[in-house]
Amino acid sequence: MISEICSINRGIIQGSGLGPTLYLVMECDLQPKSVVNLLLKYPDDTNLLVPENTDVELTDEFRHVIHWTDDNNIIVNQSKTKEIVFHRPSPKRLHVYPSVNGVELVTHTKLLGVWIQD
Fold it and tell me: Which residues contact 108 (CB under 8 A, 6 or more apart)?
């Protein structure tokens, strides 16, 4: 029996053999607004790194990513989205920017199977 042809207009089926490759191809046009900010892309996971000295703040950069996901019919899992701030043990100057609304600020998190902490 052959099923009907249907167009796929949302994401990629998780666990499929082609899923990781298709995700990376689909996400190739997602770029940060600032050249000093980094987007690290992995299958089914994207990480945004924003240094303290940047021309585009974290909230604006995150808003840019959310706008891209809306345009590409991708849903961001807010419950898995975390914010972590790294700093030196005894900083002479520590300026903490406001957190992104709706994103949990944590002191440790798991990234690619490795636990990291500030």
Answer: 84, 115, 116, 117, 118
pTM: predicted TM-score of the whole model, two decimal places: 0.72
Using CA atoms, how far residue 90 sits from 18, 50, 62, 87, in Å, is 46, 20, 28, 8
Kindly list the domain boundaries of the chain, sorted by start residue: 19-117
Res 116 pLDDT > 70: yes
pLDDT-derived band at 29 (thresholds 50, 70, 90) equals confident
pLDDT of 79-94, one tens digit each?
Answer: 888 888 877 776 666 5
Using DSSP's 3-state secondary structure scheme, residue 16 falls into: coil
- Report residue 110 as tokens: 């798991």
Q: Which two tokens stand for residue 88?
A: 């030196």
